[in-house]
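[agent] plan:
  1. take the single chain provided in the ticket
  2. run structure prediction with default settings
  3. attach structure tokens to the ticket
  4. add a short note for the reviewer (M.T.)
[agent] executing step 1
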Amino acid sequence: MIAFERNGLQFDFRASGIVIHCDHVLLVRIEQFPSWFLPGGHVEIGELADAAMIREMREETGMSVEIDRLVWVVENFFTLDGKRHQELGFFYLVTPPPEVTQLDVGKEFYSKEENGTPLIFRWHRLDTLKDLNIFPSFLKTGLCALPTSITHIVQRDPTD
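[agent] step 2 finished; step 3 output follows
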């Protein structure tokens, strides 16, 4: 995975999937943290970002998604558990497989990262995101009005 620490700053290269179905978006959170985020994961050395996102979606959710388009390239600066992070993220709009026809709204399903970290997934209504603890915060409004062309975003935590 492309992740390393230098001079007290953690760098991560991630790819995330935007799965929207019936006015709901699929979000995930790590059990011990309150923030929801889009599913995805680290890009491996020599791996294309879009391939990493497809792989991560399959590993974490069991879904085989198809990429519609790249929506955002995000430079995200934040602090987590007292550690400063710089994350480069590619966010792809994806089409879920045809079997995703029924949403269990409000019902969570569980998975695990390869390191054993418990993941909690849930479909959230787009019109409720403004009240949700979602990371990065631009997603609260961004997911409700996706740009029509690739957009570069720089997101900085107020504490960074």
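[agent] step 4 note for reviewer: The longest strand covers residues 66-80.
[agent] ticket updated
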